[in-house]
Amino acid sequence: MNKIFANMKMKASPKPFRVIADAPGGSKGQANVPQSPISDVIFDYGDVLLRLDYRPCLEGHFPESLVSELCNARNTNGADDSLGFFEAESRMDCGEPSVSVIKEYKKNYGSNLAQAFRYYIDHYEDSISGIIDGMEALLVDLNNAGYGVWGLTNWSQETFHVVFEKFPQLEPLLQGTVVSGIEKMHKPNADIFNLALNRFNLNAAQTVFFDDTQANVDGAKAIGINGIRFNNATQARDELQRLGVKI
Question: Rounded to whole angstroms, how far apart are CA atoms 56 and 76?
Fold first, then answer.
């Protein structure tokens, strides 16, 4: 393993994040919104709008046994995170800078794993393999029908810039996004949901939120948002139509 780690070449640090400006207001009360109990839809990013996977980034650069273990930690949402990799990324999602996270990670797990984490952050774009099938079309249809379309994601401010650089077609389809790493608050806590509602001028009872993690769905429901566990684009479209969304 040491030979593999020693032969790696690191990229320069990621570019600074391009800040998303506050949105002027949600679709609440706008004349072009269809007569529907729902006026706005908020989407999580990872595994809802975008496919995220450690493997395309790490495979071939690190031992297969390590890559498989790290992928398993991510696939279980950190439930089997014996190497602390998922936890380290979660800390960045909460707003901690990579420099301090990596320093502590190295202290707790050793230089080899810290080097792997640094490589992952420096090559983050390789971990985003594409837009989830059917989701771009769903965003387009919601926009065309006059609904408010927003984002709310647990994501580091150091790596979020990669999203719109790699998939620029998504940016005009989302009227605004709240990023946990910028706000230093995170799902499933109520504060970040309330921030999104206030910043985008949304009515919780008229808003749907999709997330692939049940705890985040429950957090949205706790403040009155219509939270739905995301499985795929077809299921999301069906759920919206069930709630009266005209798409």
Answer: 18
